[in-house]
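pasting for the record
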Amino acid sequence: MRQDFAETQALTLLAWLATDEDLLPIFMGATGTSETDLRHRAGEPEFLASLLDFLMMDDQWILSASDATGIRAEDFAAIRAGLPGGALPNWT
């Protein structure tokens, strides 16, 4: 997946997260992100990658985000792979 498309998808997920009153505080607490950080870092690919890393920790978060945004749950890993640090390790 191209990085620009992955970033667009991740921004959609960030917009959803910003409206989720239950999950947003968990994300902010787990990452140390402030409301100011959300506004200023939203366009940073590395920040968006951390959002995907966070969401992918729980299947229910993925399903909730998928339902709300229309982004297929199956695409979350591809979106993450399209962002910095998302390449799968090669163990051979």
